[in-house]
Amino acid sequence: MSEILSAGSIEGVVRKDVPERVISRLPIYLQAVETIAAIGQTTVSSETLAAQSGVSPAILRKDLSQLGRSGRRGVGYSAQDLAATLRSFLGLDRAQNVAIIGAGRLGSALADYAGFQRRGLRLTAIFDSDEGKVGTTIGDLTVSAIADLATWADPIDLVVMAVPASAAPAAARIAAEAGVRGILNFAPTVLDTPETVRVQQVDLASELQVLAYYSALETATATPVEEHSN
C-alpha cells in the first residue's frame, strides 16, 4: 500500500543530513510527479512514481521519508502536495537566478534550454570576457562583461560555467566574490572555490568513457565462446 502525503512545510528537516545520493534523485521525482499532475491526476502510488523515476518503490518511499513524509496508507501521494514538498526542499519555492559564464557554442546552446523556467530556475544573464561577444544577443539576453557580475542588479544564485579550462579558475573566483553559491562546471578542470560555493562537475568525456566500458562489457558478455575440439 502507498502513503497519502499530508500537506505542510518541511520544518524540522535538516538539509545537510540528507544523503547526497538521495538529493540527486529528488529532482527526478519532482519531474515525474509534476508530469503526472499536469495531466490532471491528483494522486499517485509509490509504485507508479517509482517506475517513472527508475527506482524501486522501497527506495522511493525511503527517500521521501528523509523529507519527513510518511502519512496514511491506502490511496497514494497527493501529486500537488508532493510536488510542493520537493520544490520547497530543493529550494525551488522561490526562483533561483541563474547566469551562464561563456557565450560560446556551449553557452549559447544552454541559453536556449527551455527547461530552466519549468524547473523553477530563472536564467537572468550571460557573461563573457571576450569584448567581441559583449553586447551581442543570445535569445532574449544581452551578453555582459564578466566584470559586471559583482554588481549585477539581480543577485546571481547559481552559475553555469561554459568556458575553456584555462578561463574557468578566474571566472570561478569572480563568481564566488559576487556571492554565487553554486557552480555547474562544464569546464574540464577542477575549480578551487570557497566552502560556501558548491561545485557540480559535468564531464561529458568521462561519462561517455563510463558508457564505453559498459558497452564493451555487454558486447563481451553477448559474444558466444567458441568451442574447439581436438
UniProtKB/TrEMBL annotation:
Q: Which parts of the sequence bind NAD(+)?
A: G102, A103, G104, R105, L106, G107
- Domain (CoA-binding) ranges: 91-190
User: What SMART domains does the database record attribute to this sequence?
Assistant: CoA_binding
Indicate whether Transcription regulation appears among the record's keywords: yes
Q: Which GO terms describe its biological process?
A: negative regulation of DNA-templated transcription; response to redox state
Which key words tag this protein in UniProt?
Cytoplasm, DNA-binding, NAD, Repressor, Transcription, Transcription regulation
What is the annotated localization of this protein? Answer: Cytoplasm
DNA-binding region, as residue ranges, is located at 28-67
GO annotations of cellular component type: cytoplasm
| MF (Gene Ontology) | DNA binding; DNA-binding transcription factor activity
Q: What is its main location?
A: cytoplasm
Subunit description: Homodimer.
Family the entry assigns = Belongs to the transcriptional regulatory Rex family.
Described purpose of this protein according to its UniProt entry: Modulates transcription in response to changes in cellular NADH/NAD(+) redox state.
Instruction: Name the chain's protein.
Output: Redox-sensing transcriptional repressor Rex
Gene assigned in the entry: rex
